[in-house]
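The protein record minuted underneath.
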Amino acid sequence: MAGKANEYPLRSGVVPSKEIAALDYDVFLCYNSRDKEHVLAIAERLKERGVLPWLDIWEIRPGTRWQKELQKHLKSIKAAAVFVSPAGPGPWQELEVESMLLQLTRRGRPIIPVILKGRRGRPRFPAFLDLWHVVDMREQQPDPFEQLVWGITGQKPSSF
């Protein structure tokens, strides 16, 4: 762990899948299933940067209870990104967010609302999400992906 409580050293390169089971995840990605392709692309970019995302479609074995798997990993996840899009929240997304908020805020970890491209105007966040600084993927500057990485790792990009 780096010097500050919410700073984590970036892993270099892509993390081999065999090593993932033994590692703590850097960020939980919470999204509406209708936004899967957008979130999957972001998750791939995070892995390329050495940031290890917990993404349900990569981590939950078919036929298992996703709620139990999520609870098991939330204890060690360092941050969460909650994606908001034109599709709005998914049916389970609010429950995931509530559980995540409780655990992550108790541990002083960041929760990052992320507005995906295609969303018009400023979304109305539930009161519990409206407290956190937002990353807006619709903006060009500052680079929203770099903002997301900063929010997850605590390491401010030199370009800012």
Observations:
- Residues 93-106 form the longest helix (14 residues).
- The chain has a mean pLDDT of 79.
- The radius of gyration is 15 Å.
- The chain has one domain: 27-153.
